[in-house]
Amino acid sequence: MKIGVDGGGTKTELILVDSAGATIARHTAPGCNPSLLGPDQAGAVVRAAFVALFAQSPRSEARSAITATHLYAAGSSIFWQDFAATLREHGQVFTGPDSLPVLELATGGAPGLVLHAGTGSFVAARGFDGSIHYAGGLGWKFGDPGSGADLGRRAIGHALLELQGWARPTALSEALKTHTGLAEAAANTRFFYTAEDANAHIAGFAPRVLELANAGCIPAQTAVACTVTDLVEHARLVTTKLFGTAVVPCGVSGAILNSPPAIYALKSLAETHAWPVDLHFITEPPIEGVRRLLVKAH
Q: 2, 90, 168, 191: least buried by Cβ within 10 Å?
């Protein structure tokens, strides 16, 4: 049997499969990105998740029957390599970036690329020679366009201008007041600059922004269009450098990019820029990509 792990900033998903790739057990734990939690806590989250995964297995011999573990996680690759070296009773342990599972869902091993957005975002690609490339994923301090953090940041910025009285009030500022429980612009600003989990609150506003954009709120629609545009610019750079003018599959992964407002923006940008990609909107979760990679592994 084999274990697969998809670890991100918001959640960590684990899967236990048999030799045929059939799922035996699954478990979802909190996020495990060491850049957010620190190395000790990140490792503790994954270790506890392993215990919980085995506890859900109907097979008592599960732990002793593990031949391989694949760990695809966000954050420092050096940390995860060092962490993998400490694992016992997990078979041969392979570590890789969290981009590989969604790239597998997007192209199935063929040349192409994928755009993924969750709390953060990235563009991953497989070249014609099979080489793997990664763009973005720089974290909230440097943008991560298309992500929940970036969408929330853009929308909150406009909502604060509304609360200050410089922009016409819309449902966006009302939604922000509900989100934070604060009515004044200054109080909301202070909250986002002082709260320990401010980043989580910023990214947590993104689903509401998508709802408002879908309902016709213009500032919310603008925020979605702007963040998607910047992500597509990253993707177009990757596409041009790796594939030239060849048309390649382009997967689109994550709830934000698969929302109606983002889909509209992506299709419009592809047409406007004559972007040579075959867009494929991925509905499977990244853990399914992990399962497929486990099946392929020898």
A: 168
